Amino acid sequence: MTFELTDAILLTRNAYSLADLSLSPVSRRKWPSIYEALQDSRPQRQKSMQLYIKHMPAQSRPLLAGDHTAWFRPDAVTLQERTIEHSIVTVGGNKPITIGQGYSTIAWIPEDSGIWALPLRHERITSWETPIEKATWQLQQVCEHLLTRPISVWDSEYGCALFVLSTYGFIIILLLSNVYDEK
After folding, report:
1. Residue 125: what pLDDT?
2. Cα separations (Å) of 32 from 14, 46, 73?
3. pLDDT of 54-89, one tens digit each?
4. Please, what is the Cα angle at 99 between 78 and 64, to 5 degrees?
5. Strand, helix or coil at 20?
6. Cα–Cα dist 8/37, whole Å
7. Which helix (H) or strand (E) holds 71?
8. For residue 125, which phi and psi values (nearest 5 degrees)?
9. What is d(CA 36, CA 147) in angstroms, rounded to the nearest whole number?
10. pTM of the full predicted structure?
């Protein structure tokens, strides 16, 4: 149903309601199934991450990469939860910041190919979180399901004592639990 909904959106010029989309020739079901399609099209992030980790090949230490990316939306005044984000593009006389939303991503980088990455977590950084808090939480979520302690590389934004101290605790716990399990 999700693909039918997508087709209906693409093919319907003037859809003023979800009921209008259900009247599209490509939509074979009635209008209540539109709501079901919207609900079904939201993937469960935790289950997806666990599935990805389960299918990662067993290797000595997985390589994880993390990054904070800004989505610039200075003109979207009705967008909720806009925050001040660092911008690499500077306007003469202005500071390198803009208004938008920040996203934190942690991905697995396969060592054999290294030309692609599988995002394990990709989430918006809310206005009540910092990039370091979000990255720490994401790294903890991933490490809970790994068999070995990973090697992780991060952007320079994370090269500070706060991030190292925030991630130190659960990595040591993970390492100790693995040593204990091996005996």
Report:
1. 92
2. 19, 27, 34
3. 888 876 788 888 999 888 887 888 888 888 887 776
4. 115
5. helix
6. 12
7. strand 63-72
8. -90, 115
9. 37
10. 0.70
